Write a sequence for this structure.
């Protein structure tokens, strides 16, 4: 098997963001771009010699070609074995499970998650460590450093073998195992949940609509919900993954999952609605005519997780990203378990999960997961919900209303200003940062500021300090305002404004969401001069 060493030079901008390296697909297709980064993944993690990796992606445009390049490079770099999903398909949670189950050295996951795909869309590459989770910053920093020094990469001269057929082939000394992408994941879900109870729920006429958004979860959801659990055929819609996600934006929120929202608002709406994103790690949950915010979903799942066999009496703690609403904090307090607040990025949950300090984790950005793997997991969240509903008996909308009646409601919304000039976004953040120290005690939009800071996280396990993770302004009435720049965009900057207002258990939980948040929205404008800096008077996406 002939291998060759190709001379190259560093390429600017190969710094991994919130979740791996995400760029325009066209950028990744420039000869040498992907190759440089993959070589640096190997070099930045002690080399590939003798190692085993899981490789797969969400099926977006360029997925199969990129996997071919990775196979040839892994073989040339001396890897012993690759485990690859048939046709290069693996959801991010399924990849995380395989990395852990087969005790591999890590995985390379190809996805730009919820970003659109296609020739003019986005592409991404992420390295996951041997615990199955996204590489922590010390690893991504080492990979990035290599990208600034690289001089050559190694690659097999021949094309990679057939990844469309389940079986094995070799390339040099490297064995490539092509496996069914769903099997191991399905086994894991059976171990966690009460499938019998969920089957009975469907037998009794319970109806679900799961929108796979033409993305990777289609085959997983069809196999598990329809084939194994007996949901009627057609319960999973947009179930066949397509390279450009059917021309859509595979982001499960009320804006982009409008087909699901229409179905759930119709006269004959199913009992439960859900959607997942490009690579299957996010989830959106709906009841009849009701969107359950990811923050509320995390709080409710924590409150009722004991109804699922894997979590009964086993929730040691919970963790949420800083911008996620504080609804789960209230549940944790009542359950007398710790609640950790981490920076945005699933990688920050890894240490807490490994140490057994957190069992459930979640983020406002539609991510929920648990210690079963080290990624967030869209279909897992749906199955946990179904398990809870099957055992509890109440309708999801009633369950949530009862929860608010007991804990109070954290009204919550995120306003995104997309593709704004990077300098304008940075100017807004620095101007706000300068004001922070003087804010406590001041009043804005009729609310008194109790605290203001730029969030820094000291990891309780490895003591690493991560600073400048978003500006937080808290008010004496429990409301909160957070602003940060997204780390997953591929064009300009995206300003995320996270708005939260708390109404206690005896208050009105039925207000219009944006109206309830009115004072917090006004405070954001007044404190950060959003219109002046961005030139926009309304956000581009409100979720
Ligand atoms: C990634 C991260 C999440 C994060 C999200 C949004 O999700 O894993 O932790 O919340 O991006 O990040 P940002 O606000 O920086 O854009 P995914 O699903 O895109 O991999």
């Amino acid at each position: 098997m002939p291998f060759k060493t190709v001379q190259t030079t560093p390429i600017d901008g190969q710094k991994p963001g919130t979740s791996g390296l995400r760029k325009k697909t066209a950028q990744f297709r420039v000869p040498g771009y992907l190759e440089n980064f993959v070589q640096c993944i190997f070099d930045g993690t002690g080399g590939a010699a003798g190692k085993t990796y899981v490789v797969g992606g969400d099926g977006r445009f360029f997925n199969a070609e990129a996997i071919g390049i990775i196979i040839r490079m892994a073989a040339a770099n001396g890897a012993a074995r690759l485990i690859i999903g048939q046709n290069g398909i693996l959801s991010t949670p399924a990849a995380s499970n395989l990395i852990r189950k087969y005790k591999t050295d890590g995985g390379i996951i190809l996805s730009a998650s919820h970003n659109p795909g296609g020739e003019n869309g986005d592409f991404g590459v992420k390295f996951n460590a041997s615990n199955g989770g996204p590489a922590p910053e010390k690893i991504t920093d080492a990979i990035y450093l290599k990208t600034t020094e690289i001089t050559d990469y190694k690659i097999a001269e021949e094309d990679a073998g057939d990844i469309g057929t389940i079986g094995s082939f070799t390339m040099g000394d490297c064995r490539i195992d092509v496996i069914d992408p769903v099997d191991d994941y399905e086994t894991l879900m059976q171990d966690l949940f009460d499938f019998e109870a969920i089957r009975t729920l469907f037998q009794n006429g319970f109806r679900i609509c799961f929108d796979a958004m033409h993305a990777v979860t289609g085959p997983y959801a069809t196999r598990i919900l329809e084939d194994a659990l007996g949901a009627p055929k057609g319960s999973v819609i947009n179930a066949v993954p397509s390279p450009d996600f059917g021309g859509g934006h595979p982001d499960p929120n009320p804006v982009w999952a409008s087909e699901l929202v229409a179905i759930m608002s119709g006269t004959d709406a199913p009992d439960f609605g859900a959607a997942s994103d490009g690579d299957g790690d996010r989830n959106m949950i709906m009841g009849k005519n009701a969107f359950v915010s990811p923050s509320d979903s995390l709080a409710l799942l924590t409150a009722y997780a004991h109804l699922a066999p894997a979590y009964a009496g086993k929730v040691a703690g919970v963790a949420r990203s800083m911008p996620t609403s504080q609804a789960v904090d209230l549940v944790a307090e009542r359950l007398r378990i710790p609640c950790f607040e981490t920076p945005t990025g699933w990688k920050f949950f890894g240490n807490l999960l490994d140490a057994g300090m957190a069992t459930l984790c979640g983020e406002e950005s539609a991510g929920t997961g648990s210690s079963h793997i080290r990624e967030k997991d869209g279909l897992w969240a749906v199955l946990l919900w179904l398990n809870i509903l099957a055992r509890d008996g109440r309708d999801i909308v009633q369950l949530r209303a009862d929860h608010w009646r007991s804990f109070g409601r954290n009204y919550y919304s995120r306003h995104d200003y997309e593709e704004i000039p990077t300098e304008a976004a940075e100017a807004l953040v620095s101007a706000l940062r300068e004001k922070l120290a003087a804010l406590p005690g001041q009043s804005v939009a009729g609310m008194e500021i109790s605290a203001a800071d730029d969030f820094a996280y000291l990891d309780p396990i490895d003591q690493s300090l991560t600073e400048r993770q978003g500006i937080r302004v808290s008010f004496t009435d429990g409301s909160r305002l957070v602003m940060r720049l997204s780390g997953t965009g591929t064009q300009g900057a995206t300003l995320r404004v996270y708005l939260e207002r708390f109404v206690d258990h005896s208050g009105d939980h039925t207000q219009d969401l944006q109206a309830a948040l009115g004072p917090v929205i006004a405070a954001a404008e007044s404190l950060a001069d959003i219109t002046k800096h961005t030139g926009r008077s309304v956000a581009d996406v409100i979720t």
